[in-house]
Design brief:
Strand order of the largest sheet of chain A: 2-1-4-5-6-7
Shape of chain A: globular
Shape of chain B: globular
Number of strands of chain B: 6
Strand content of chain A: 15-25%
Structural class of chain B: alpha/beta
CATH topology of the largest domain in chain A: Glutathione S-transferase Yfyf (Class Pi), Chain A, domain 2
Largest sheet of chain A: 6 strands, antiparallel
Number of helices of chain B: 8
Radius of gyration of chain A: 22 Å
Number of domains of chain B: 2
Oligomer: heterodimer
Number of helices of chain A: 13
Structural class of chain A: alpha/beta
CATH topology of the largest domain in chain B: Dna Topoisomerase Vi A Subunit, Chain: A, domain 2
Strand content of chain B: 5-15%
Order of helices and strands of chain A: EEEHHEEEEHEHHHHEHHEEHHEHEEEH
Largest interface: A-B, 20 and 16 residues
Order of helices and strands of chain B: HHHEEHEHEHEHEH
Distance between the termini of chain A: 27 Å
Strand order of the largest sheet of chain B: 4-3-5-6
CATH architecture of the largest domain in chain B: 3-Layer(aba) Sandwich
CATH superfamily of the largest domain in chain A: RecF/RecN/SMC, N-terminal domain
Number of domains of chain A: 2
Number of strands of chain A: 15
Bound molecules: zinc ion
CATH class of the largest domain in chain B: Alpha Beta
Helix content of chain A: 40-55%
CATH architecture of the largest domain in chain A: Up-down Bundle
Radius of gyration of chain B: 21 Å
């Protein structure tokens, strides 16, 4: 089912609160600043071990406090329970515990409850830097192939080592690290190429279904190394730019310089789309990510939808909700005056969020 | 700081011991018979006083050169290169390998300031001459271990000696069904012709 309960301590404005859930669809209703998004952020951190809003744990810990935590209990189909706890500290590194045991690799957490979050910042994946585009597609790949994370980590290790050697002009080891960057980088490039091909099929389909725009969309992977058939070709590309690499003291080519383009009828969507259309595209990107994950792993994701429907007009809201993939559990946030009843199911649980407190709405409250 | 706190602090400096296990050991020692504690202290000081690094292979032993290097029954045409001295213990426990060893004392890591000069590579190059005909690289399957193997392969090959790396892959008795993808990938890469 997903999360059966949450317990917060000094987590932003959620000072000392616990909630229990017994539905696969949860609505959190409240004015801004009451704690809806804080709850979504906490759920995300239980799935990923980090926040999607900040890199600084201090931002999350309530002012004048030293520690903060959120504990979530997950229940699966066989009703076996797992506890995940993320503790944050003002003056040391955060701790993540699964069933009371500290985990040392985030990989172990990612596999427990795969999650797709829809957030306001997703617009960056469309119109942001190549780095934010890579972030989205890296996440998409990690969701369906956890070992891709190892490749990314190893790649970043060998690139930093190579950059240091370039800066220190230690040429003795340069060849070896060029070889490693080429070999691991080529593997990453292949993975991205293969993923984009499959992702495009899903993405085009949902673009058609949700956007109601007439044109054809497609994502084009634009790798830094062009025309590589093996790591040897990647290595020869790197060796051609060795002088430039030495001059700048950094590795100037490779998957850490890859980018992705969104083409609409062959034109760059970023330069022709309105802000509203770019926003729409970012939402469809997440819909496709969730479908892609479901299709290629057979597992159902947890969905976190923070104020997404607000961005869409009435018809597209309906299309969006009707085109969501099967999910383990979904959390939606709404403002009190939004027409959330239109999307609710018989089993939906609705919580009223006010000043960091959650109150379950009963039938009497609604009618 | 009292003596108990000091002991806990010293224990928690050891690898793999956190504050909790450090204090558990300290309290355990408080309850232990004095002669048993003496035996432990004795073992620690003796190992530090008598064990020397073998000038040839880098292994720790009571004598220099170590018993492995001075054993006439071992095959002196092949050298197995390992990261740490403790890896020798693991390989020796199999009783399968009869050649010599060479301890690097770590792996290449430019970020941590570890280059070829910080490892026992110069000592290795001195050893690579007849009767040595083959080097087996047994560094760990980490990115650092891979990079080190790549570097060693390059410089040893220049001397005309046969270099190989131990195969990494499926554990014997293991079921392919339960192996993770990375292990299978590595096993595929290191496949052998039948
Ligand atoms: Zn020796």
């Amino acid at each position: 089912m997903g999360f059966a309960s949450l317990r917060f301590s000094n987590y932003r404005n959620l000072e000392n609160e616990s909630i229990t859930f017994s539905s696969e669809q949860i609505f959190l209703i409240g004015e801004n600043g009451q704690g809806k998004t804080n709850c979504i952020e906490a759920l995300y951190s239980l799935c990923y071990g980090s926040s999607f809003r900040t890199h600084n744990d201090r931002d999350i810990i309530k002012l004048d406090e030293d520690t903060s935590y959120v504990v979530g209990t997950i229940v699966d189909e066989e009703s076996s329970e797992q506890d995940i706890c993320v503790s944050l500290f003002a003056n040391k590194k955060k701790e993540i515990l699964v069933n009371g045991k500290k985990i040392h690799d985030r990989k172990d957490l990612l596999q427990i409850i795969p999650c797709v979050v829809f957030s306001h910042d997703d617009l960056e994946f469309i119109k942001g830097t190549p780095a934010s585009k890579r972030k989205f597609f890296n996440q998409t790949l990690c969701l369906y192939d956890i070992y891709y994370l190892d490749a990314l980590r190893n790649y970043s290790k060998v690139v930093s080592a190579r950059n240091l050697l370039l800066k220190q002009r230690k040429n003795e080891l340069l060849d070896v690290y060029t070889h490693q960057v080429a070999e691991i980088g080529f593997h990453i490039q292949m993975q991205r190429r293969e993923m984009i091909e499959k992702f495009n099929i899903v993405f085009r389909d949902y673009f058609k279904k949700v956007s109601r725009l007439p044109g054809e969309i497609s994502i084009v992977y634009s790798p830094s190394w062009k025309q590589t058939e093996s790591y040897e070709t990647a290595m020869s590309i790197m060796n051609k730019s060795i002088n430039r690499d030495m001059q700048y003291g950094t590795t100037t080519t490779g998957p850490h310089r890859d980018t992705f383009l969104f083409l609409y009828d062959g034109k760059d969507f970023c330069s022709i789309g309105s802000t509203g259309q770019l926003r729409l595209l970012s939402i469809i990107l997440r819909v496709a990510q969730a479908h892609f994950f479901h299709e290629y792993t057979g597992k159902k994701p947890l969905l976190l939808l923070d104020d997404v429907l607000l961005e869409l007009d009435k018809k597209r809201r309906e299309l969006f909700v009707n085109n969501l993939p099967e999910y383990e559990q979904a959390f939606f946030t709404f403002l009190p005056d939004e027409d959330y009843n239109a999307f609710k199911r018989d089993t939906t649980e609705i919580f009223r969020v006010e000043k960091g407190r959650f109150r379950l709405w009963t039938k009497q409250d609604i009618f | 700081m009292n003596s108990l706190e000091r002991l806990i602090q010293e224990f928690s400096k050891l690898p793999g011991l956190g504050k909790k296990s450090a204090s558990r050991i300290a309290y355990h020692l408080l309850k232990t018979d004095e002669h048993k504690v003496d035996a432990l202290v004795n073992a620690i000081t003796t190992v530090k006083k008598t064990l020397k690094e073998c000038g040839v292979c880098g292994n720790y032993a009571d004598s220099n050169p170590c018993p492995l290097c001075s054993d006439p029954h071992r095959d002196n045409s092949v050298i197995c290169i390992v990261e740490e001295a403790r890896d020798i213990l693991t390989i020796e426990a199999t009783h399968e390998y009869k050649g010599l060893y060479h301890v690097l004392g770590g792996v290449l890591s430019p970020i941590q300031g570890i280059g070829p000069n910080e490892l026992r590579i110069r000592e290795l190059l001195i050893r690579i001459q007849p009767p040595v005909q083959e080097c087996i690289i047994a560094t760990n399957p980490t990115v650092e271990g891979d990079t080190t193997a790549l570097y060693l392969g390059k410089i040893v090959k220049d001397t005309g000696i046969v270099v190989s790396r131990i195969a990494l892959g499926l554990p014997v008795g293991g079921d392919i069904e339960y192996a993770d993808r990375l292990t299978i990938l590595q096993a595929m890469k290191a496949r052998t012709r039948l």
